[in-house]
Amino acid sequence: MSELRELGNKSIIIFAGRVLGQVVTFISVIVIARLLGANVYGQFVYLISFLAIFTIISKLGIQNGIVSFLSRNSFNLRQKQSILNFSLRTAALLSIIVVILIYANKDFILEELLNNIEYENLFLLLIPIVIFDTLISILRSSLVAYRKIKEITLVDNLFNPISKTFLVILLVMVFKIENYYALVIPLYLSSIIGIIYYIIKIKELALFGKLEKDFNHIQIVKFSLPLLFTGVVIIITQNVDKYMIGYMIDAKNVGVYRMAIQFGTVSSIALLSVNTIFSPIISGLYFDNRISELKKMYQITTKWITIINLMIFGMILIFSKDIMRIGGEEFTEGAMALIIISIGQVVNSIVGSVGIINTMTGSPKLELYSGSVAMVLNVILNLFLIPIYGINGAAFATAIALLTNSMLNFSFMYSKLKMHPFDKSYLNLLCVFVVSVTSIYFLSDIIQVHYLVKILGIGFIYSIIFSLLIYRFVMSDNELRILKSEVNKRINRN
After folding, report:
1. What is the average pLDDT across 217-240?
2. pTM of the prediction?
């Protein structure tokens, strides 16, 4: 029960932080879209998406491996210091080598892989971000292993988006920098400050120390290598759509599609929030042979992840065009892509943290297998669908790939642990979704007001109706008792 309470409390912290971070990020995207246009934003997204593949290679999968190793009670402090030392040295060296290779082959990359030599200046400016992102990822994973959720939330979801937004506005509005420098400068400044902050927090944990010569560091590499390929697969799957849109169509469509992804993946906040704190808990419960507790936590978290995803999907289904209009009229053509992307997120949420469970229970190769199938499928579908359907084709390809990955990961997990999250409450949840969306859809069609007023006002009514129906028809007696107990504790504490 203590792990469940910790998972719930810290997931709420992360969820709240991610929501606030998304709000700030939306503001930033809207500022960029309106002041710099879809073309400049699209170029930046296009190149960042391309470089993400090299970043994941330089990490060697260690950023996931150290979460498992540092969260195990079987290692003492000196061994954990050695693990972090080895991980940082390895990742830093690899990232430097990768950056040198990119610079050495820049002409080939620009002409053959990016299909546009006009991106040269921006591309050269962005290449070093591979080193920064690699170091941030390793340092961040160390804090994840020690469940330092508030610290991570502060940097990832508050400081980074707020500082970037402030700097973009400052550079555009005050210094009149209306090109990609308004995006590059905030990116590097926030990265440097983030690294410094993480180093300070890790020092407080006394995790910096010498390499232990008698410690078998190769086991970290062996555990992490499958995660490297898994990471490559995930990054390609997440970015191949944007890359192929930029290669086959133009940067403007990349910008529109990126806006659709920004809104369409907001529901993934719930799953990502749970995964952040759930991953070390999974490892601890599994290796302590507390499988029944792991099963209970999986069932509860998956149900609530699905509830949150369906609630947000309902909003997107009703207000898709109005939501895209926030970025400007040129972005409304991405309304259908927004809906398709959101459907993929809902399907992904239904099976919960299956990929993380496979990895943290000692089977990282399973996530690699499922991810590889999804990646190949995604690339093939994008090749065929983008030339015909444009960004809607890319959205459909991504949704199908996400569905495939989730179902394969779930089948692997079920065959190993014999657990699933489903019960009759899921049928009630589906009915609640249909009733809520149908009633609000007709209401929004009748009321003709400014699109922002419609999103906020009618969206609020929808949220209330959905929440009340969930409370009445979906929550179990045990969940109601836990909810009332937590509410009373917070009231008494205040």
Report:
1. 78
2. 0.72
